[in-house]
Amino acid sequence: MLRNKPAREGQSIDTLIGPQVTVHGDVVFSGGLYIEGHIKGKVLAEEGERAVVTLAEQGSIEGEIRAPVVILNGRLIGDVHAAERIELAAKARVHGNLHYRVVEMHAGAQLTGQLVHAESASAIVSEKLAQASA
User: What is the pTM of this model?
Assistant: First the structure.
């Protein structure tokens, strides 16, 4: 369970969604969110907050994730927008696109979707804006 998992340095768990819990709707959080249960909706970090969302091996999310740091080890159906970093652990099963600045993918992780580098996406938008104004 939770107490058996070592926390990364500087990472705390402020909110836990346990394995017996299913949330229907959006979850807005700050700090550390650890998901062992199931969410059918968006997972959104509050603007301007240092936030980490961790999806445990037995957890699942059907919806979009927007947070600075996203660590996945469970099942996700939806896109991820991580301002800082995405980590796909060995048991991660992702069906969606990952928008990232830094990505780390462990052996065994599965991704069905696209990897979109954040700086690349912003460069494309800037280029399109420049073309539109010319």
Answer: 0.81
